[in-house]
Amino acid sequence: MARFPFSAIVGQDEMKQALLIAAVDPSVGGVMVFGDRGTGKSTAARALASLMPPLMAADGCPYGASKEDQARYPDVCGQGKLVKRPVPFVDMPLGATEDRVIGSLDLERALRSGEKAFEPGLLAKAHRGFLYIDEINLLEDHLVDLLLDVAASGENVVEREGLSVRHPAKFVLIGSGNPEEGELRPQLLDRFGLSVEVRTPKDIEVRIEIMRLVAANEADPKGFAERWAGEDEKILKKIARGKAKLPKLEPGPEVLRDAAELCLAVGADGLRGELTLMRAARALAALEGAKAVTRKHLIAIAPSALRHRLRRDVLDETGSTVRITRAIEELFG
Amino acid sequence: MNSADAADPLDEAVRAARLFALAPKLFGGMVLRGSSPARDALVAALGEAVTLRRMPGHIDDERLLGGIDLAASLAAGKPIRQKGLIEEAAEGVLIAAMAERMDGAIAGRLAQARDESQSALVLLDDAREADEAPPVSLTERLAFPCDLSASRRWEEVELAPAHGSLAAVAPLDDKALKAIAATAEMLGVDSIRAMIFAGEAARGLAALDGRDAVTEADLAGAVRLVLAPRATRLPPEEADDTEEPAPDDQQEPPPPPPEGSGDNAEERDDEQQDQQQQEPDLSELLVDAAKAAIPADLLAQLAQGKAPRRSGASGTGQKRKAATRGKPLGARPGMPRGGAKLALIDSLRAAVPWQQVRRREVDAGDDSPILMRREDLRIRRFEERAARVTIFAVDASGSAAAARLSEAKGAVELMLAQAYVTRSEVALVAFRGSTAELLLPPTRSLTRARRSLTELPGGGGTPLAMGLNAARECAEAVIARGRSAALVILTDGRANIAADGAPGRAQAREDAEAAARAIYACGIDALVVDISARPGPEGAALANAMGGRFLALPRADAKMLQAAINAAQPARAA
């Protein structure tokens, strides 16, 4: 299936912004997308992955190891020459078994040649790319546990079936789910740097526009892609520029103070919220090519960085987003 | 909020880590609570001092304890043993992330290894709620529980090397031993292990400073690190004791580290001198040190007379062995039929030791790489947590609810908020007028539950029998799907609509009793909560008929109601 160009996605600006931030600075953490089905969540994630410039990865390495990986994990990543390969995008099926996710003993080789070989799983495939989990709230608990562990440590440790393997598994976790169908454990939410809420566009003109674009893509994927190539190229440049700019941007003390005050005002638990808010504001500034990180960037990204970290008060009907915007108004006017 | 130089929990944790690195096997390990940047920094520093080996939560017994190396055995034609992780990490330290989710069986194996002094462990505890915690069997065996969730640090830390060795420090004298024992007693720490850890920690603190004798400051430090976090009660207050700090201003800095050995103790002496002129009792000093170090949340709980958090997630359903889905458990002998899946690797592993014997039995012509027999076959087992469903039957009639409906709704919402952490589900049955309906089928969704609650109107007669029957049917459906169900019925018990919808008090009461007995016959856990302003005898009678419990809460608000229901809920997974 041809991938839909990222730049051709209509609306959903918050989601696109969050994905671009994750692309500029993966250390911000993953993106959690709340919302209905059919709002372009997986399309956007997929489109972003295919938009990214190819990686330099060890030839024949199932993990797509970088040079640093080769130095750190010499036994699993080999010494293969670096070749170009596309940024991986792994779509994790809900019914995936533990074996499939973490990898397992390659039985065929064990039986045929008595060789103990590891057959890498989805986590290996997702290294340096995106791991997309649709309806993450329906994922079985034990899978959530292992994902949390790997997402936090950037490494998959397998100790089973007689195997003892450690391999790099750093990825941008993109989850989507509908809060109507069950809540997520707070530990899991915390692992997502940003969260966004998407809604089906209600404007009839916008809906027609989307249908027109999708139809055009289906009729002539190649031509469609070519038509949007220029726009996609612009986004790609923006990401590349942002990445280059990122190390030079350091939020000043007043921005740090703003971040701390805002987190305190909305009651976001833990220091992680503050750190993410700062990192995300910095990535946004880099993405926009700004000279410095300012309060404006902080405010723009605050709902995404904080809304999933607020302590829940069930008797308070006010949504998280409203609480954050209200706090911003009170603090910064 | 915090001034920059206020003491941070990280400081104490760094001291604990230095002690641990001094003698990992002796101290057993650390429990680092709270997923914070400070904890990441501490783990990184610890990794410099000792070899950390990560243990994934999905490790199997074969890899933990060692077993047959399948591939090597097949290649060699004879069983070849492989070391397990515990053995491999014998010189280092195992580290387990998300220890609050650790499987009981794995915890048991590790505890055993601990008892044989084979391993040292660091547990990372990410628990958020009161009923999540790492297995007690393990935490009990690790000397240092450190709570870093409130730490405001994120910069790197370093574990300064010790100036001396533990062997050079003299054993504790009787006075010191007695003081530790008395302190443990006052804090309600029953375990002897904790006392031993505290004693060794005091010696360790002396060793860190390169001294050969233990000072009072060392003892106080050890009590703070080992005993204070384990407190199960607050030490008894002296009659004329100074005001204790309130639980909420517990951000108070613990006394400074013992570098300037002795200062600390002297300061405390000064404080006490106006109270008593003679030499202060050592154990009093230690208790004071402990009190200042009890973590804020624990202190708050203790002050309310509650027991500290425990693992064993109440509210989650019981664990069941399942054949087809859930978290994989070990395999067991059996035939792969009826949905059971073949555990290929375990089957092969079972066959390996017999290969030489079998080769001799069969013709030499058989060149299959492995000779399998029926008895080798293993099937997989999975653990499925039977979701627990709490079914609320809410009386929305005019008599019971008009004034109290909002409290009932609030309590249901609070229970549900809890449910998303304990992974239990909630269903809602409402009865009023001449109908009872299942407003909300079993769900975990807060959003849906809130909506259906908001839409729930009140007023009309009390078709209690209908409500009970609807609740029972819902419970039966839940049980039929292999989950456990509990009923919470909020009513005043004053039925006035019969099971067939006809008004009439006598018939209604009779029908309600029959419905209650049906619940009893099904063996469903039930709790009747009477929240009407003037509770009568009807509620208790109803509870009695269904073999359940009864609570009268005439003036409770939603929060109190939820707390009471929680406390009284029958058959908690205990």
Alpha-beta classification of chain B: alpha/beta
Number of strands of chain A: 11
The DSSP helix count of chain A reads 15
Task: List how many beta strands of chain B DSSP finds.
Answer: 16
| Backbone shape of chain B | flat
The major sheet of chain A is characterized as:
5 strands, parallel
Low-confidence stretches of chain A: none
Q: What order do the strands of the largest sheet of chain A run in, or round the barrel if closed?
A: 4-7-10-1-11
CATH architecture of the largest domain in chain A: 3-Layer(aba) Sandwich
Keywords (chain A): ATP-binding, Bacteriochlorophyll biosynthesis, Chlorophyll biosynthesis, Ligase, Nucleotide-binding, Photosynthesis
Pathway (chain A): Porphyrin-containing compound metabolism; bacteriochlorophyll biosynthesis
Enzyme class (chain A): ligase
Function (chain A): Involved in bacteriochlorophyll biosynthesis; introduces a magnesium ion into protoporphyrin IX to yield Mg-protoporphyrin IX.
TL;DR?
The complex is a heterodimer of chains A (333) and B (574). Chain A folds into two domains: 6-52 and 87-198, 3-Layer(aba) Sandwich (Rossmann fold), CATH 3.40.50; 248-332, Helicase, Ruva Protein, domain 3, CATH 1.10.8.80. Chain A has helices spanning 13-24, 41-51, 67-72, 74-77, 98-102, 107-113, 122-125, 141-153, 186-191, 204-219, 221-245, 253-266, 270-287, 295-306, 320-332; strands at 30-35, 55-58, 82-85, 89-92, 104-105, 118-119, 130-133, 155-160, 163-168, 172-177, 192-198.
Explain this structure.
Chain A has 333 residues and is of the alpha/beta class. Helices cover 50% and strands 15% of the residues of chain A. Chain A folds into two domains: 6-52 and 87-198, P-loop containing nucleotide triphosphate hydrolases (Rossmann fold, 3-Layer(aba) Sandwich); 248-332, Magnesium chelatase subunit I, C-Terminal domain (Helicase, Ruva Protein, domain 3, Orthogonal Bundle). A five-stranded parallel beta sheet of chain A has the order 4-7-10-1-11. Chain A has a two-stranded antiparallel sheet with strand order 2-3. In chain A, strands 5-6 form a two-stranded antiparallel ribbon. Chain B has 574 residues and is an alpha/beta fold. In chain B, helix 1 packs parallel to helix 3. In chain B, the strands form four sheets. Chain B has a six-stranded mixed beta sheet, with helices on both faces. In chain B, strands 2-5-6-1-7 form a five-stranded parallel beta sheet. In chain B, strands 8-10-9 form a three-stranded antiparallel beta sheet. Chain B contains 23 helices and 16 strands. Classes of the chains: A alpha/beta (333), B alpha/beta (574). Chain A: Pfam families: AAA_lid_2 (PF17863), Mg_chelatase (PF01078). Chain A: InterPro entries: AAA+_ATPase, CHLI-like, ChlI/MoxR_AAA_lid, Mg_chelatase_ATPase-isu, Mg_chelatse_chII-like_cat_dom, P-loop_NTPase. Chain A: It catalyses: protoporphyrin IX + Mg(2+) + ATP + H2O = Mg-protoporphyrin IX + ADP + phosphate + 3 H(+).
